[in-house]
Queue: 3 jobs
Job 1
Amino acid sequence: MIEEAKKLAEKYLDEKTYQHSERVARYTEQNRMIPEHLRERCIALAWIHDVWEDSDCGTAEILALDATRRMVKYMNYITHGKNEESYEDYIISIKNAQTIYPEVWWVKLADMKDHLSQRDTLTERLKNKYSKALAILL
């Protein structure tokens, strides 16, 4: 599943977003707090967490990654559409689904870690946005 997710990221993401997904996948893989039975799906989700937001990848390709079809549900939670709920409501929905879809929560934490560690692109506005989101998630 991980290699297939990585291939989707390579296929659909531009270089900058691909590098972000690669770092998020690495942070996820290195996180020993993630239970072993969730690791594969978490790492796969880390690779593709921005695919729906930043490309024209369809549902069929996501479904092909996971026979349980859970990956599509994860993508629905981890994707924040520009015309949908506020960012705070989006983060609250991830927090509320933590017991049902912990993979989304783990990957979102890794995603925020990466955004907060990118000093060359971290504006004061983004720093505040992600700091508030972390406070909600944690």
Job 2
Amino acid sequence: MIEEKLKKSGDFLSLTRQNEWHLDPFKFTLSNGTTVDVLDTGVIQFTPLHYGTKDIVLSSAVHGNETAPIEICDEIIQKVISEEITLAQRVLFIFGNPASINIGKRFVEENLNRLFSGAHSDGDGLINDERKRAKKLEHYVSKFFMAEANKRERIHYDLHTAIRGSKNEKFAVYPFLHGAPWHKEQLSFLKQCGVNTVLMMKAPATTFSYFSSNEFGAHAFTIELGKVKPFGENNMASFASTKSTLIELISNKEISYPEFDMSQFELFEVYRAINRTQDDFSFPFPDDEVNFTGFKKGELLATDGDKEFYADVNGEAIIFPNAHVAIGQRALLTVIPLTNTTDFV
């Protein structure tokens, strides 16, 4: 039986990769009382017999070639099933796009991380498997967060790696909170993970982390853990603090982090987004230019057909440049140091 095989091996990632778009649900119980619910391919929920006040979603492989977070989550899932880790919180693990894992690419037909908050059904609707997958993932996360009637702390960490390198190897994107304050404890958690660079978004988005933040009030981040590399080529030692902090989070009912200290962080805010609107779109900098590279006022940032974009302020820095996005999508974010440091709780 499939559940017995998984219970013995703990290898949910292989099972997921063998069933790219669908897997019939099944469940079993570990000897420590934890219920294991496989909801679909790449979606596995753990419910301890006695659990604390947090509901935690840990997602990876929303882009299939971002392997380090996949390896981290794969190892943690195996240790939970083998009972090397005893959970103290409800946890939902998600491998977002199994088909793209198998081909070693960011996506198959469409960027999954641009399809949440209903974007999967915009325009022509559910026209490909990634759009259908986004709708399903919204459903699983919604069901997970809404299952408990009592007020609980909701958390969603969507783990990625960036297409290119960064001056700051690890960084996080804090979704737009619509005027609500940023949480110092969450930033302290990130620092414990080895992430001290955070980008505060200033507008709604169709990313997975924004979906959980906006729809359910979850503490949510897109966390970038270095640069895209093939399986087996990641220096997993560089992710040791991230992995140990995640394990502490899910295996303790209460946990505290060092007090928030602004001086230990590099905090940025979005200055503007540049979309690709023409076939002829290019950047003046090389393909290996790293995230957070700053430009002087007046320097060229991008060319979109006949239109040129220049840095408006000294130090305007680039994030997520991708000249090959679909027409109409964001090709570049620029950021500046955060000026408002009062909206924290």
Job 3
Amino acid sequence: MIIKSISFKNFRNLKEAVIYPHKEKNIICGENAQGKTNIIEAVWLFTGAKSFRNAKENEMIAFKKQRAETNICFESGGIENEIKIQIDDKKNFYFNDKKVKSAAEIAGKFNAIIFSPSDLSLVTDGPSVRRKFLDIAVGQLYPNYIEILKNYNRAVMQRNNILKDCYRDASLKLLLDDYEDVIAENGEKIIKYRKAYIEKLKKVAPKIYEGISNKKEILEIEYIASSDAGKLKENIKNSRKEDILRGVTSVGPHRDDILFKINSLNCRDFGSQGQKRSVALTLKLSEAQIIKDITGEQPIALLDDVMSELDKSRQEYILNHIDGWQVFITCCESSHFENLKEGKIFKVKNGEVF
């Protein structure tokens, strides 16, 4: 998969432009707050996922403008395709000039992985961050998963609303059965998708982490489920009494987590800052490998200010590992890439790309 061109208009602070990336390495340099990450964000949106910066639609539109637009032309499977996104109060997607109903219909057409310094939260923060990583990764590979997840989350929210009102109106308990059936049906599918992905991750990630750590450490990954898929419906109903007291649904994939161990120790609790960052980076590189294994095509790699956080040996490993990919790397200092033999260096200043 290769991006042939990227254009943007009224997208954040970026000046209207069309850029033509190199088929492999693309270095985006500039001082902080000039617009480097905005380019990475614009490309990421074409996966159908939300902004990795958790930005709302109106935050992506230039000051005093009503609408932003961004467009890519890319090659996949030897065929050129085009995706356009118009952003006003929501994102509107067009695939080869035909409007699609939702972002879910774009998922799987254009694949990318994103790594930024904030991804350290994959290891350091709570379970919701790790679940989000899993859901985005699975959703790129299996677009129908996105709809399953939406149905599940909607049913959990509706059940929670009923749970909170049950103490005022006991008759509301009669409504719980229907929502619990929806939760169980979709939740079982989510657990199966996630566990299947984790099994793939277990085969790929330890090898990559071994390379990053110079064979000094061993990475283990485990999916921690609040319920087995086959017992989810039973466990939800058994937890009803306690859930009414708490006002929340306590069982289901929305409560699950992933455990990372380095040399048999919980990385979140005992890992160094460098180990945690290496685990997060490993997850993203593994995600790319899994996409390639399943689709047959290498996804686009988006690395936001990652080199400045790593020592020289890790920098060299990453550059060697992504050799042959189309990659976009933002940085403040182009000196990190002064020996770049093939590729393009783009400079960004006050939103202008040159």
